[in-house]
Amino acid sequence: MAVGLAIASEGGQYNGRLTLLVLVSCMMAATGGIIFGYDLGISGGVTSMEPFLKKFFPKVYTKMKEDTKISNYCKFDSQLLTSFTSSLYIAGLISSFLASPVTGAFGRKPSILIGGAAFLAGSALGGAAVNVYMLILGRVLLGVGVGFANQSVPLYISEMALPRHRGAMNIGFQCGVGLGVLSANIINFGTEKIKGGWGWRISLALAALPASILTIGAILLPETPNSLIQNNSNPDKAKTVLQRIRGTTDVQAELDDLIEASSISKTTNCPFRKIIQRKYRPQLVMAIAIPFFQQVTGINVITFYAPILFRTIGQGESSSLMSAIVTGLVGTTATFISALVVDKLGRKTLFMIGGIQMLVTQITIGVIMAILLVDHGGLSKGYAYLVLALICVYVAGFAWSWGPLGWLVPSEIFPLEIRSAGQSITVAMGFLFTFIIAQSFLAMLCRFKSGIFFFFGGWVMVMTAFVYFLLPETNNVPIEQMEKVWKDHWFWKIIVGEMDDEKKAYTQQGA
């Protein structure tokens, strides 16, 4: 990576301002977050709709309606039902690795375009499904779309934004996720009331709307200067785009950094092999640890299965969907707040605040359900509202910490030569752990019962300590100069510093 290059302003900042082109480009790219969030919200909602369950999962429907002996926590325990939800994430895991060479060789735009097109096909198949096989095949296509979009969109936003705006702009992706979840919950609430029991088809098919926006946007968006330099030996085109998106002709300092980073990246034949080298160890650890921790916050208890969870504590079909709307609204609002303050407070501060907030609420919910929710019956209305309020506080904690920062931090820490591979690992790990949680949650809920909240609470404690001790602050650092944050960190400088010493020794021997 390029370090120590001339910078056009104080504090390690490049020249430029927030232009309309950058703002519109990042807003369009953040639609990739909307398709991801929409799917999260829709899948949880339709699996709580009785006509949907009756058509595709009749055993679950019968167990829910007629089996009076089964525990509240076990009514929805079905591997076929969880396969419907989790099949998307296996497809996303595989496609995120396929997306890496496309993103690296052809640019960020083609990957975004492929993601939008695949999601369009998946939404059409899901809405028209007549059997469970069509349903799951549609989910697989959605997974391909999400895999490509999640791999390329955060990179696109990080490369387009100025360092001082990068946090807020990148959180636009998570804002899109929140808006997608909220929109899905509102649509589910409306379609559940359609007479005839076919409202779930509308819920699944409407995923085509954000996918269309993303696909059209991918055609109209400019490519990032980083990608243009990486894939074009002539830097003039990249300079022209850089001048347009920065709103100034004085972009030489940033262009020099991009060219230097690109020249290093072109010496890398196999980025996946290179990323395991010791000098990239901090980035590799973060690429695995951050998506893992993001999933074991327990947020999937809410986003996938919020309506099912609320039905578990005794709410009706309509009330459970309305509760999911409330939590979605809280999460979206908190994400917007995060976007406003992340470049002022920094990443670590928000991580710590959110971690403490999630830990306290999860333990409290676990205690309430352990004491009051037995295997049969339900919570009283007052306690059900209390659980809903605590879940809202928990969702807010996630939405201004691990939700957006789980995407932001990995997208900004990789040098250009391993950036596409690093992002693919991050996205793939996210899909892998999401699949594991999605596939096992209903079985865990049946066996752990209220203890599920203590399980996730323990992980929140671990991840908060991890951030405090091992994650350096990346706020306001130019993306092409991120190497210095590891060299200055109390722990990682031991590894990176030793590599530097090895390089010096090798150079002296060669001399």
Question: How is this structure best summarized?
Answer:
With 511 residues, the chain is mainly α. It is built from 25 helices and no strands.
What does this structure look like?
This protein has helices at 20-29, 31-46, 50-56, 58-66, 79-106, 108-127, 132-160, 166-191, 199-205, 208-220, 225-231, 235-246, 252-265, 271-274, 281-295, 299-303, 306-312, 317-345, 347-372, 381-399, 402-413, 416-448, 451-470, 483-487, 492-510. The relative contact order is 0.15. With 511 residues, the protein is an all-alpha fold. The radius of gyration is 23 Å and the shape is globular. Helix content is 77%, strand content 0%. The protein is built from 25 helices and no strands. The two termini are 23 Å apart. It has a single domain, classed as Growth Hormone, Chain: A (Up-down Bundle). Mean pLDDT is 81; it is low at 1-11 and 499-511.
What descriptors fit this protein?
single chain; 511 residues; mainly alpha; Growth Hormone, Chain: A; 25 helices; globular; disordered N terminus; disordered C terminus
Q: How would you sum up the global shape?
A: globular
Mean pLDDT across every amino acid position: 81
Strand percent estimate: under 5%
SSE pattern:
HHHHHHHHHHHHHHHHHHHHHHHHH
SS element count, helices: 25
Specify the helix fraction band: over 70%
CATH-assigned fold name: Growth Hormone, Chain: A
Major sheet summary line = none
Q: Could you name the CATH class?
A: Mainly Alpha
Any guess at the CATH architecture?
Up-down Bundle
